[in-house]
Amino acid sequence: MSPEVVPWFHAATGTYSYLVCDPQTQIAAIVDPVLDFDVRSARRSTLFADALIAHAHEKKLKVEWILETHAHADHLSAGAYLREELGAKLAIGAGIVGVQKHFAPLFGFEADFAADGSQFDTLFHDGDAFALGGIAARVLATPGHTGDGVCYVIGDAAFVGDTMFAPDVGTARCDFPGGDARTLYRSIARILALPQETRLFLAHDYPPQGRAPKAETTIAAQRGGNAHLAKSEDEYVAMREERDATLAVPNLLLPAVQYNIRGGRPPPPDANGTAYLKLPLDVV
Fold first, then answer.
1. What is the DSSP-derived secondary structure letter of residue 9?
2. What pLDDT is stored for residue 1 in this prediction?
3. Is domain 4-260 in CATH 3.60.15.10, yes or no?
4. Does residue 208 have a pLDDT over 90?
5. Measured by CB atoms within 10 angstroms of the end CB, which terminus of the chain is less buried, N or C?
6. Is the whole model's pTM more than 0.85, yes or no?
7. Cα gap 38→108, rounded to integer Å
8. Cα(275)–Cα(268) distance, rounded to whole angstroms?
C-alpha cells in the first residue's frame, strides 16, 4: 500500500521532515521534525513544527507517531514538542542507548540522567513491526552514519534518514562516535534489497550547482547510479574514510546532540531557572 507523503523542507538546516498518512484512515506519522534554533542567540521557536501541526489539523489527520531516524547532529528535534501537542508516541531506534552512554559524560549531564532511552516512548529494534492505520510498517536497523540509525519502511515508502542521499550526491559521513563506514555499506545494502519501486525519502539533499534540492528518489535510481556505491566494500570504506577526514564539524553538532539524546528536550534548568547547553572545549 502507498501512504501519502508530504515533505517539509527546513531551509536553515537543509533538513526534510515528512508528514506521512494512510489516506484511508487518516492515521499519520511525522518523521524527523525540526525545532527552529538560532545558534547566535540560543533562542528556540516552533514555527516550523507549528506548520506541521496546522497541516495535520487542516487535513483532519490523527498523528499517532513521531519517528526519529537517529539522534541528529544538524538540527534540534521538535519531537518532544509535537508529542505533547499531538498526543503522539515518540520513537527512535534502540541504538540511542549507546549514543546516550557516549555523549552524556562528554556534556557532563546530571548524575540522574537515565541513559536507557526512557526519554522516548518506543525504542525500535531491527525487524520490529507497527502499523500506520491500515498500512503495515517495519523497522530496519541501519547503523553506520551513527550507531542508532533506523529506516522506517511504511508501505512502499522508506524513510532512510542520513544513510544515503540523492544518487548524484552519494552517502553519509561515518566519522561521528559510533559511526563506521563498513557498517554503513552493509546497512545500505539492506535498504537496496527492498523492491526497486520503493520510494526513498531523504533527510537531506546537498545538490550540485544547478539542481534544486529533492526529497525523494527510488531504490532503482540508487541501485543504478549512486555516486558512492559502484565500489567493492573495501573500496567504499577507503573512499568514505578518506573523505570524512576532510569534513568540517556540523554547525549545530554540539547543541543538537545534547538536546536530541534527551528526546528533543533541554537540560534541566540551573538554580537560576535557566537551562544551558554546554560547549566542551578542545574535545570534539
1. E
2. 82
3. yes
4. no
5. C
6. yes
7. 23
8. 6
Rounded CA separation 199/117 (Å): 30
Q: How far apart are CA 98 and CA 102, in angstroms?
A: 6
- Express as a percent the part of the chain with pLDDT over 70: 100
What pLDDT does residue 259 have?
98
Is the sign of the CA dihedral 109, 111, 115, 118 positive or negative? Answer: negative
* Cα(240)–Cα(245) distance, integer angstroms: 9
Q: Which of 21, 63, 68, 70 is nearest to 176 (CA)?
A: 70
Pairing label, strands 89-93, 122-124: parallel
* Structure letter (DSSP) for residue 171: B
Look up residue 154 and give its three cell numbers.
511504511
Chain-centre distance of CA 71, in angstroms? 6
What one-letter code names the amino acid at 72?
H
- The confidence score (pLDDT) of residue 284 equals 83
